[in-house]
Design a protein that fits this description.
mainly alpha
Length: about 90
């Protein structure tokens, strides 16, 4: 896990307006990250496996997190997204 990122997210969860599902997704994305590198690109199906949520729940939560301005995504040609946490910048 991007340990620093995971701790930073835990420390800010109280002040973020997120549902429990969205919080779980944020932590799951951080799990796939590498500290000090902007590389955090799990596939949505990997997030599903990690969180035990359906693909629909993951997609809905990711869209909500983007709408709230908490994450940003950049698409890769390999059908993956690079996720960045806007509230940590």
């Amino acid at each position: 896990m991007g340990e620093k990122t995971g701790h930073a997210i835990w420390n800010q969860l109280d002040r973020l307006d997120v549902s429990p599902t969205e919080a779980l997704i944020l932590l799951a994305i951080a799990h796939f990250g590498i500290d000090d590198l902007p590389l955090c690109h799990p596939r949505q199906r990997h997030i599903c496996r990690k969180t035990h949520l359906s693909l629909t729940a993951v997609k809905t939560s990711l869209a909500a997190l983007k709408r709230k301005g908490l994450i940003a995504t950049t698409a890769f040609a390999s059908r993956r997204n690079n996720y960045s946490f806007k509230f940590l910048q």
